[in-house]
Amino acid sequence: MIGRRILVIDDDAAMRDSLAFLLDVNGFYVATYETATAFLNDVASGPVDCIVSDIRMPGMSGLELVSKVKANRVNCPVVLITGHGDVSLAVEAMKAGAVDFIEKPFVEEVLLRAINSALEARPTKPADDAAKLLAEARLADLSSRERDVLQGLLAGKINKVIAHDLGISPRTVEVYRANLMAKTNVRSMSELMRIAITAGL
Fold first, then answer.
1. For residue 15, what are the contacts with CB-CB under 8 A and spacing of at least 6?
2. SS3 for 100?
3. Higher pLDDT residue, 137 or 42?
4. Neighbour order of strands in the sheet with 29-33
5. Do residues 124 and 185 touch, judged by C-beta distance below 8 A?
6. What is the rounded end-to-end Cα distance, in angstroms, of the chain?
7. How far apart are CA 165 and CA 148, in angstroms?
8. 20, 75, 77, 110: most buried, per Cβ within 10 A?
9. Strand, helix or coil at 182?
């Protein structure tokens, strides 16, 4: 991965510097921007291999940035980070086209793994049909009730609302959520959302 160019966009100067240092010592070329608008104004500055952006920023948000990058046909994965993570935001980020969604505070290894996964997926990205089949296979062992809970999560509903809709207790919803994570062998809710979206749920 040596020499890949990563752009960091975050309105928090300390966070920007911290991320730039982390990526620099791991062999990446790094450019930093305070806002998404500043990056877009400078998008012709050279090739970009991956963007790491905060979600909540003044002016254009990270979600809007993902949409803009896709609209401009910039073939570059975007990893979103946030200090206000929730499931509905993760779903929105994935549907917009972000490759990962990471909540602050995070351990450095989580971000590096997300970036490396995004970079590795680019040259040999499987066809959409193959990705869909792989995602469906990971969801194949779910019970119908687990699928119901997953549909609720995809709709951005909180546990209490899912419980009410399904006529079960919020505690039971928590159990189903734990089952979903275990059966699909995912480490984060954003990873589960990405699989579900890829599978076409």
1. 54, 104
2. strand
3. 137
4. 29-33, 5-9, 50-54, 78-82, 100-103
5. no
6. 33
7. 10
8. 77
9. helix
**Phi (first) and psi of residue 189, to 5 degrees:** -65, -35
**How far, in Å, CA of 7 to CA of 48, rounded?**
7
Q: What is the pLDDT of residue 23?
A: 92
* 8 Å CB contact between 68 and 96: no
The rounded distance, in Å, linking the Cα atoms of 80 and 9 is 10
CB atoms near residue 86 (< 10 Å): 13
Q: Cα(196)–Cα(95) distance, rounded to whole angstroms?
A: 11
101 bridge partner residues? 80
Closest CA to 13 of 50, 47, 54: 54
Spatial distance between the Cα atoms of 96 and 113, rounded to a whole number of angstroms? 21
pTM score above 0.70:
no
Question: How many CA atoms does the CB half-sphere of 146 hold within 13 Å?
Answer: 17
User: 154 pLDDT band (50/70/90 cuts)?
Assistant: confident
- Alpha carbon of 111 to those of 107, 115, 137, 144: distances in Å? 7, 6, 26, 33
**pLDDT tens-digit readout, 92-101:** 777 778 888 8
Q: In the chain, pLDDT over 70 holds for what percent of residues? A: 89
Tokens for 167, please give them. 């006529």
Q: Which two tokens stand for residue 137?
A: 């296979």
